[in-house]
Amino acid sequence: MHILILGGTTEARRLAEHLADGAPRGLRVTNSLAGRVAAPRLVPGEVRVGGFGGAEGLAAWLRAHAVDALIDATHPFAGTISFNAARAAAAAHVPLLALRRPGWVPVAGDDWRAAASLEEAAELLPALGDRVFLTTGRMGLAAFAALDRQWFLVRSVDAPEPPHPPRMEVLLDRGPFTLEGERELLRRHRVDVVVTKDSGGAATAPKLTAAREAGLPVVVVRRPPVPEGVPVVADPAAAARWIADRLDGA
């Protein structure tokens, strides 16, 4: 049985590790990485890097490599590949499962402002503050490029490229982040508003606690929906059980 994992996330890596630790004989796992990060973390199993050429290219790859099941464990905001995966799986008649970490939920004391997109988040900022901690990654900074009054602290794994905000400092770093570190970062840079995507998970959640403690507003960009009809699980163990069920029925 050949499993293709569309990965690049912590959940995808943990699923691959889970399958490698207890993989039954005959299970082949291929991990697909988009190649947007210069130095991705190592993952067990076969690895391919780069795109497929849209839904048609992915469907052709599934057929050519006799893939028996497809796991979409991409980032919650990788909407294009998720919809391509749904179309490709349907065309190639391959079962598809989406592995998505749960989104964040506000608690008492949080001052969250919902935004449907990065562009909408940018529209909210002039009324919220002048010193922005932008944690949405290096992709999509063009949405904030017209804001010349605000100063941005941009945190990303790799250095961003233009277009981006004219007043910007880049912090190259990769989670997980600590609560103490996030408190110090907000204090040192005199941040007065935080912008984040609803990525979910624990690795980057401490910034939300630090913002709540400091009484800062947080603009939270809502994640796109999973394609209609695609089953969803919230953790790698559940995805592994889904795969095991298909092995048992093979």
Characterization of this structure:
The chain has 250 residues and is an alpha/beta fold. It has 2 domains: 2-102 and 225-249, Glycogen Phosphorylase B (Rossmann fold, 3-Layer(aba) Sandwich), CATH 3.40.50; 112-221, NAD(P)-binding Rossmann-like Domain (Rossmann fold). Helix content is 31%, strand content 21%. The protein has 7 helices and 12 strands. It has helices at 10-22, 54-64, 79-92, 118-124, 179-188, 206-214, 236-249; strands at residues 2-6, 28-33, 46-49, 69-72, 96-99, 112-115, 131-134, 151-156, 168-172, 193-197, 218-221, 232-233. A 6-stranded parallel beta sheet has the order 3-2-1-4-5-12, with helices on both faces. Strands 6-11-10-7-8-9 form a 6-stranded parallel beta sheet. Helix 1 packs across helix 7 (236-249), helix 2 (54-64) crosses helix 3 (79-92) and helix 5 (179-188) crosses helix 6 (206-214). The mean pLDDT is 92.
